[in-house]
């Protein structure tokens, strides 16, 4: 959430920076602009009445009798008026704060301007594309090997679910441990978080109130997490952190209703209602956030490089930024079957946007004023999409899939995926 006092004092700058996002982002400030005018007027009037009170109080000492009684009555009237305006001011500020929950974060000054994904900028590439004569997509590869079963998953759960079978189920779990090991080597502490959270946690990271339709909610009022970012960031909600930085890695299943994404990337494993992910979350001093983001990208790239998967790093333009992000890099892995790069990790810094919602602060030094922290997170990595990349990049002419050497020790030395042997 943006800082209320900063927004009302810098409305034009806020509108200009939000307009770079496109999609009418700056229009979210319209109700705030009206309320801000009333807020200024209430503050001015309250200050004026307090000045009157002070002056009248000083006059009381030199008055007696009827004149003093009249002035005392006037003082009471002023006091009642000040209380009334202060109550209204509190109400207006609460309405502004409620409206601010629907306002996206301001893009960082280093974010390139653009209207959408077409204006995203490739920063660097790693590795090279494999030479595959007739590449097939992961769905065809997995189903022919008997490793993926979408049909029975649809019977059991509905569309956008899948059963992994045999060695592919083992590969999914092996990748989870591989990613956690990579993160631990780079200084992250493991957390195994809850998969159900309350509404306060969803508000803390920015999913509520704007994106409720994308969430799964239980009858008890809890929400299934869309990413481990939610419970891990809220792990320090309403806390004062004495030492920074703090770095966590966390595995979790993720649940997304994907409302509004009908017909978009719905084939295969790319956009499922349930998937696995290892998340990297960092708490940093605000002045260190941008350098920490660059390091976070390297942390997310590390397992991709170990797996030998060709990928590129792209910085998102203003028009493609997520709601809470001030700057984002996407890691996009090459998928031969699709003949395209596809997102496998998204690494973002949020400045103090989430920390203000969740009231996560730190004390730079003993006795110094409290400050909001900067929060960051990134996929390290999306497990299902890594499976897609391994299937498509390792596919062989005979239908089998050669596994990257780095993952083989996690699978007892297994070198390739072959047809499932039915029991």
How would you describe the overall organization of this protein?
The protein has helices at 4-9, 11-19, 30-60, 65-100, 138-144, 150-156, 166-185, 199-205, 229-233, 289-306, 353-358, 383-393, and strands at residues 121-126, 148-149, 163-164, 189-191, 196-197, 216-217, 223-224, 240-241, 246-255, 274-284, 311-315, 327-335, 340-349, 361-362, 371-372, 374-382, 401-402, 416-417. With 423 residues, the protein is of the alpha+beta class. It has 2 domains: 4-100, Orthogonal Bundle (Helix Hairpins); 117-417, Bira Bifunctional Protein, Domain 2 (BirA Bifunctional Protein, domain 2), CATH 3.30.930. The strands form 5 sheets. Strands 1-11-12-13-16-10-9-4 form an 8-stranded mixed β-sheet. Strands 5-7-6 form a 3-stranded antiparallel β-sheet. β14 and β15 form a beta hairpin. α5 (138-144) packs across α12 and α7 (166-185) crosses α10.
